[in-house]
Design a protein that fits this description.
InterPro entries: SAF (IPR013974)
Mean pLDDT: 80
Domain SAF: 57-120
Number of helices: 3
Pfam families: SAF
Biased composition (Gly residues): 162-175
Largest sheet: 5 strands, antiparallel
Protein name: SAF domain-containing protein
Distance between the termini: 103 Å
Strand order of the largest sheet: 7-10-9-8-11
Strand content: 25-35%
Shape: elongated
């Protein structure tokens, strides 16, 4: 195709430049997939953020050590905000008044969230039990420190009475199960252990303790 152009006033034919064709960019499948992935990840991140905010709550945490059987006080607990704590089933802070009527079922450690499984209404001295005090020398105590809720075994030791006979005939080896309620250390250096025993075992243990024929064994720490 040509057109007429003028050169020095004389018309001449000249070729017409073809129009420029703009090539369309081809979309690479890899980039398209990456874009879709980024959009999906963004949606998941937004959903996670919303879920985290919704699951944030105020719960009760342990502020100081609490022994087994001890009734909780307001100074033992502190409210904290926790994100995603529902899976742990902690005690909500709005149940503070309800919790203060309960006791610790296990030893509570500061900095941990309080859960219903750690609480009980039952005192250490249960039904069918009586409490006794057992005075021991430091070397007779089976642990550096006994805690409320520790399970112990009281074992009778053989009599020092003269005469023959086996250990069994001298009354040694009888066992009694007990639970530590508390301990004290008087000024004389001895250790007083307060124990919960079955009512039926109290007379025998008291008699053996009077003869200094009781050994204390720790079987389970609280």
């Amino acid at each position: 195709m040509s057109v007429v152009a003028a050169r020095n006033g004389t018309p001449v034919e000249a070729p017409v430049a073809p129009p420029k064709v703009v090539r369309q960019r081809r979309v690479r499948p890899g980039l398209l997939g990456l874009a879709v992935l980024l959009i999906a990840l963004g949606g998941l991140g937004a959903a996670f953020a919303v879920t985290s905010v919704r699951s944030t709550g105020t719960y009760l945490a342990v502020a100081r050590p609490v022994d087994v059987g001890q009734q909780l006080t307001a100074d033992d607990l502190v409210p904290v905000r926790v994100s995603g704590g529902r899976e742990l089933q902690p005690v909500s802070a709005d149940r503070m008044d309800e919790v203060l009527e309960l006791r610790a079922a296990v030893r509570l450690t500061p900095g941990t969230l309080l859960t219903p499984a750690q609480l009980t209404e039952a005192p250490l001295l249960g039904a069918g039990q009586q409490q006794i005090a057992l005075g021991l020398e430091p070397e007779q105590v089976p642990a550096r420190k006994l805690h409320p809720g520790d399970k112990v075994l009281l074992v009778s030791t053989p009599s020092n009475a003269t005469g023959g006979g086996s250990e069994a005939s001298r009354g040694g080896g009888t066992r009694f199960e007990g639970t530590v309620i508390d301990t004290a250390t008087p000024q004389n250096g001895d250790v007083v252990v307060y124990l919960a025993l079955a009512v039926r075992d109290v007379p025998a243990v008291v008699a053996l303790a009077a003869d200094d024929r009781i050994a204390l064994v720790l079987t389970e720490a609280a």
